[in-house]
Amino acid sequence: MTSNLKGITLKGSAELVAEFFTFGINSILYQRGLYPPETFTRVTKYDMGLQLTTDVALKNYLTNVVAKLKEWLFDCTVQKLVLVITSLETNEVLERWQFDIECDKSSKEESAPRQMSIKTIQDEIRSVIRQITATVTFLPLLDTACAFDLLIYTDKNLMVPENWEESGPQIIEQSEEVRLRSFTTSIHRVNSAVAYKRTDSV
Q: Could you count the other beta carbons within 10 Å of the beta carbon of residue 97?
């Protein structure tokens, strides 16, 4: 495991970014009301209170996805993760949370860790999650039953798990986009944005 003294290794960086996605995805699902609030439990992480699902099926699903994502982060073969929220009634895409992932592939050849404080990285992650929490102030209310999908963009020749399927980009017609903060571990950089359907176009 990495420490503040030893700096950041590729493995440590992959773990930090994967951990961010666990908390980030849970935060979006909680804030956007996709699951009842009573199916979440409050935990403290990054010096802030966060919500984690207690729904067994959702928990297992996210654990499997994030474990695979961690492998691909370590191999520098993943380019983005997208969380898509769709209306169950119309199947229309209402929101699209996009996280672009850049990886410095030269880190695969390095033996010495990079000098970057874990605290600095966690402070940056906290700022991103704070923004996710604040989006409820401007995102349109989801007043219909919704479902979500996770899309992961990887290198073309990558072996994908058997029960995963190919998907289109699921773009929103006539959307507004808001750029959120980014964070970097000095090996991985994550840029985030949310696109949503304009209410005047409904």
A: 23
Angle between helices 56-75 and 10-31 (to 10 degrees): 150
Contacts of 5 (CB under 8 A, 6+ apart): none
Mean predicted lDDT score pLDDT of the chain: 89
Q: Which fold has domain 10-201?
A: Cell Cycle, Spindle Assembly Checkpoint Protein; Chain A (3.30.900)
In the prediction, which pLDDT does 4 show? 41
How do the domains of the chain map onto residue ranges? 10-201
> What is the Cα–Cα distance from 36 to 47, expressed in whole angstroms?
25
Q: Kindly report the backbone phi and psi dihedral angles of residue 69, in degrees, each rounded to the nearest multiple of 5, phi listed first.
A: -60, -40
Beta bridge partners of 103: 188
On whether the pTM is more than 0.85, the answer is: yes
Query: Is it the case that residue 153 has pLDDT exceeding 70?
Result: yes
